[in-house]
Each structure stands twice: as structure tokens, then as C-alpha cells.
Amino acid sequence: MNRSRETKALISIGIIGLVILFGAPHSLDLYSVISLTTAVSLAILALSLGLIWGFGGILCFGQTAFFGIGGYAYAIAALNFGGSTGAILVALIVAAASAAVLGYFMFYAHCDANPLQCDQTHFGAGIQNWYRKTGWF
Predict the structure, then answer these.
(1) 69 and 31 in a common domain
(2) Are 28 and 93 in a shared domain?
């Protein structure tokens, strides 16, 4: 019986989330919509850190590099496409492709947990330094 109560609560939260998702752009001003979008994006980033560190036991900030790559790809694609629908797809593909390329080389080298953690963290720091040196950040 307790399980069905949790299920009903999760369904209720999902319905409220969908109402906010589709209702916010029509009822809020542009600044509030952008602030809400930023908060949700950063919440997803925080959940990814909680998943990796909490359940996986690996302290890793490497996913922020892929978050940044996706955000950068989205911004460039949105400016060039004139809309955000195609830009979202481009951002997902670019971030996933860069993660796949880095993951291929890291796992193909048969690294254990500690070098894997260091490689991902250094990758994130390297991307940040590259953005700062090129003036794109």
C-alpha cells in the first residue's frame, strides 16, 4: 500500500512539472522563463554529479566539460539556425560525440578508477583553459 502512495506522489509531481513546463512560457515574462530554464539546467547538472558521486562513488567533475561543450554548441547553433529546436539536437549530438570519443580512448586504454577520475577532471580543466585562452569563454 505504501508503494502505491509513492507512485501516486511521483505521478502528481510529474503532472505538476508538465503543467509548469508548458504553462510557464505563456504566463511568465521572458526574464522569468530564462531564469527558470537556467535553474533547471543547473539542477540537471547537479543531479548528474549526485548520480556519479553518490551511487558510483567516483568524485568527478569531468561531466561539466561536456555540459559546457553542449552549451557552447547550443549557443553557436541557435545563432546560426535562428531557433532552438535544431540547436538542442546539435548540442546533444556534439556533447555525446565528445564524451564518446574521450570515453573510447579512456576505456580502450583499460584505465582503473583513479586514472579515469583524473583524466575526466583534467579534460574539464583543459576545456576551460582552452576557452579562456581563445577568448571564447
Answers:
(1) no
(2) no
Q: Check residue 53 and report its DSSP letter.
A: I
DSSP state for residue 136 in the 8-state scheme:
-
End position of a domain, from candidates 16, 41, 56: 56
**Assessment of whether the complete model's pTM goes beyond 0.70:** no
Determine the Cα–Cα distance for residues 88 and 123; give it in Å rounded to an integer. 23
34 and 83 both lie in a single domain = no
Question: In a structure prediction context, what are the per-residue pLDDT tens digits for the chain, which is 137 residues long?
Answer: 567 888 888 899 989 988 988 888 889 898 988 888 889 888 888 888 888 888 877 777 677 788 888 888 998 999 998 877 888 899 999 999 988 887 777 777 665 555 555 566 666 677 777 667 776 55
Taking phi over 0 as left and psi of -120 to 50 as alpha, with beta for the rest, 107 belongs to alpha
Buried b (16+ CB within 10 A) or exposed e, 42-73: eeebeeeeeebeeeeeeebebbbbbbbbbebb
